[in-house]
Write a structure and sequence with these properties.
Layout (H helix, E strand, L loop, with lengths): L43 E9 L5 H10 L3 E10 L2 E9 L2 H14 L6 E7 L8 E11 L4 H10 L4 E11 L6 E12 L4 H15 L2 E6 L3
Antiparallel strand pairs: 1-3, 1-4, 2-3, 5-7, 5-8, 6-7
Length: 216
Amino acid sequence: MVSCYCPMAPVKLNPTATPRAPRAAPRVVKALNRSVARSAADNQLLVSTLSPAHRAPILALAKRIADAGCNLADARVSTIGNDTSVMLLASGSWDAVAKLETAVGKLARDEELQIVHYRTTPREPTAHLLPYLVEVIAADRPGILVKIIEFFSRRDISVEQLSSMRYQAMQTGAEMFQAQITIGIPSETHIAALRDDFLELCDGLNLDAIMDPVKF
């Protein structure tokens, strides 16, 4: 058996040659015209109505929200005097909200209903605000609510919800004032000092008041 040996030709190196850069990975080009999918929660419609109490359109609005394919995200109903105010927040896809706008527009043709509706956006997160409930009871006189709201406004404390009423005490017939206010206190606020300042204000105005954290 005969073995053959074939020597390889020597490879000549050019010392002056510039080394070739490695090939770059292919670039991925994103389509600029591609539509970005929006969350259904981004499409919201706020509906506010005012009507005689016996004509409150709560059921009619709830049905229209469901028929349009929207969700009822939030609701507020309040009867004041002989009238009822309804405030609803509906969310859904863009098409569903557009369908709801048309339905609410038709409902607004009723002369006994005062309806305002417009598109809105989700509220920004407010995790830095601590929810506290303020309750005030006092003999009724003008300006009580103004002084309370002014106290919190000067300290950049937001009023999240407010409900107040005047009534006649059953036992004595005295004219009384009552208010329940949910406030958002910035987390860096010294709560004990704020409570002391508020109770001092109430003492000066002869108000019976408490300020406690919301427990739910």
